[in-house]
Design brief:
The complex is a heterodimer. By secondary structure, chain A is mainly beta. Chain A has three helices and 13 strands, in the order H-E-E-E-E-H-E-E-E-E-H-E-E-E-E-E. Helices cover 7% and strands 52% of the residues of chain B. The longest helix of chain B has 6 residues.
Chain lengths: 182, 88
């Protein structure tokens, strides 16, 4: 069940979820809340196009690969022009905490106005699991025919929050009742 | 709730992330986690989701660099979260 703006605000008020900094009232629509772009992005270097990634190779480490293949860029108020066809890693400015007691999970989705000029915000991994804490990493791709200017603080994606049925195992103590881990 | 011992390896791909190492049944695994979640060298993981012969199966807040979300750890790697117990 997708939560309405009022339900999201109620959960925040009850401290069952948190979004910090708190979204302004105009960041909400009926069933979602907009999140904004953090200034720091990671841009894949030119010249990596010919390399082949083997995610199944023993010892494959995606974080090290990304760290080695990207440069951090801090977007100023003048913005950063994202070329067409480019993949960029980005993060939301907001830190989201889906407390397990809130019994919610979420999905991060694009905004229609940006989608229509070709900007995608994730690559088939939109799920924010119950219990997740942190800023949300985005995979921005410019699928459009023109460059797109990214600015820090722009509304970059929307968070859709859904209730979950039941209690996840990691929030359920009973099977370990009476045990002491040392 | 339980806390998992971690070794801090430094900043992740973004300043909000910390790169940590955890000791699993199959050796050390690395994972980028929310920096604010760390507590004195430990990571909150909720309750273990399984157990077998001295090992607990725990669900990490984010997948390891190898893609695993649930990993087996020795029970010695877990510490009861007393603060969480008091407020439960």
């Amino acid at each position: 069940m997708i939560l309405t703006d009022r339900e999201i605000q109620n959960l925040i008020k009850k401290k069952l979820i948190s979004i910090e900094p708190k979204p302004s009232i105009d960041a909400y629509d009926s069933t979602a809340v907009d999140l904004t772009l953090d200034p720091l992005i990671r841009v894949f270097r030119s010249g990596t196009e010919g390399l082949i990634i083997d995610p199944s190779a023993p010892g494959y480490k995606v974080t090290e690969l990304i760290r080695g293949a990207t440069d951090p860029v801090t977007i100023t108020d003048q913005g950063w022009d994202m070329p067409r066809g480019k993949l960029v890693l980005a993060w939301t400015k907001e830190r989201v905490d889906l407390n397990l007691k809130g019994k919610v999970a979420a999905r991060v989705e694009g905004k229609s106005g940006l989608a229509r000029i070709g900007l995608g915000v994730h690559v088939t991994a939109p799920t924010i699991h119950a219990g997740f804490p942190g800023t949300i990493q985005l995979e921005l791709i410019n699928h459009g025919p023109m460059s797109i200017k990214l600015r820090p603080g722009m509304a970059i994606c929307q968070l859709i929050i859904e209730t979950i049925k039941g209690t996840p195992s990691k929030a359920h103590k009973s099977q370990f009742a009476g045990q002491k881990a040392t | 709730m339980m806390l998992l011992k971690i070794k801090n390896l430094g900043e992740g791909l973004h300043p909000s992330e910390t790169f940590v190492s955890i000791e699993t049944k199959n050796g050390p695994e690395q994972v980028a986690v929310d920096a604010q979640s760390l507590r004195n060298g430990t990571l909150p993981i909720g309750w273990p989701v399984g157990k077998s012969a001295g090992f607990f199966l725990v669900e990490l807040p984010r997948p390891t660099v190898g893609g695993a979300r649930r990993v087996w750890v020795r029970k010695e790697e877990l510490i009861p979260d007393k603060a969480a117990r008091k407020t439960a």
